[in-house]
């Protein structure tokens, strides 16, 4: 049976709760204030609503997309491409990082190539993927994978290298093999590294998908942005950008929920 919290601890938790609610309220008010100021500026003529649109015009555009059924087509296309690239980039990158940690000699060989590939602008590979794979979702997913893969490898592997050297020496002294050290120490100690990699890959995956849809797509948020800019429908462009921001934020919050869930589970098992 858990011991009851002291009055000081309860007061501290209540203070943390109030602070969290104040921050959340301030964030909501800041967002609402931004949209209100944007709408006021458009109606008062302070900005050109044809070029910068306005919240009310964006809402009308989204309602039109909803009524025509195009909203779910474009949103769903971009989301599944992003999720596919996100999962592939994270999983393959983590596996390669594990292999490189298990084979330090191999890492020393490929390290300069990884650094060069990390610095290479991945958008330059877009036309190459189109020629190799074809003009379709597969080339867009390949573009997303190219952007997130190398970053995942380097970030996860650097986290492995930063594992507490004292604990590593202790396990080696006790006769643990490199694979045992990996499973018993390195992987559990780098839970935060994996979560950070997931958070970074959310943004990178969306960058890859949107850039891929800019180059070759017939549906998706990137397609709407390109189409809207070509026909000077800035309401459509801004609505697509707003949708992109919302779904990216939802994915990021999903990663944070996963982090809290695993953290609570680990605390409960100790």
Automatic annotation (TrEMBL):
Cross-referenced InterPro entries: MetI-like, MetI-like_sf
GO biological process: transmembrane transport
Short name of any one Pfam family annotated for the protein: BPD_transp_1
Record keywords: Cell membrane, Membrane, Transmembrane, Transmembrane helix, Transport
Organism domain of life: Bacteria
Residue span(s) of domain ABC transmembrane type-1: 75-255
PROSITE patterns the UniProt entry points to: ABC_TM1
Subcellular location: Cell membrane
Keyword Cell membrane: yes
PANTHER family documented for this protein: ABC TRANSPORTER PERMEASE (PTHR30151:SF19), ALKANE SULFONATE ABC TRANSPORTER-RELATED, MEMBRANE SUBUNIT (PTHR30151)
Protein name per Swiss-Prot or TrEMBL: ABC transporter permease
Organism: Candidatus Avoscillospira stercorigallinarum
């Amino acid at each position: 049976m858990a011991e009851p919290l002291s009055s000081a601890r309860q007061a501290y938790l209540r203070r943390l709760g109030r602070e969290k609610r104040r921050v959340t309220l301030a964030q909501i008010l800041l967002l609402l204030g931004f949209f209100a100021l944007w709408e006021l500026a458009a109606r008062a003529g302070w900005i050109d609503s044809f070029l910068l649109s306005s919240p009310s015009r964006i809402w009308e555009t989204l309602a039109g997309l909803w009524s025509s059924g195009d909203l779910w087509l474009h949103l769903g296309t971009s989301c599944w491409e992003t999720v596919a690239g996100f999962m592939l980039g994270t999983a393959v990158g983590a596996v390669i990082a594990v292999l490189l940690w298990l084979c330090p000699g191999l890492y020393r060989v490929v390290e300069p190539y990884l650094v060069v590939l990390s610095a290479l602008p991945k958008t330059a590979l877009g036309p190459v993927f189109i020629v190799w794979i074809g003009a379709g979702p597969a080339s867009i997913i390949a573009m997303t994978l190219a952007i997130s893969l190398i970053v995942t490898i380097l970030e996860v592997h650097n986290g492995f290298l930063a594992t507490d050297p004292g604990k590593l020496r202790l396990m080696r002294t006790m006769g643990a093999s490199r694979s045992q050290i990996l499973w018993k120490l390195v992987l559990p100690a780098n839970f935060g590294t994996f979560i950070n990699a997931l958070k970074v890959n959310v943004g990178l995956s969306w960058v890859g998908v949107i850039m891929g849809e800019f180059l070759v797509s017939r549906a998706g948020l990137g397609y709407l942005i390109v189409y809207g800019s070509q026909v000077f429908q800035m309401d459509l462009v801004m609505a697509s950008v707003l949708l992109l921001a919302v779904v990216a934020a939802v994915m990021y919050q999903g990663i944070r929920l996963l982090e809290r869930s695993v953290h609570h589970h680990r605390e409960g098992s100790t």
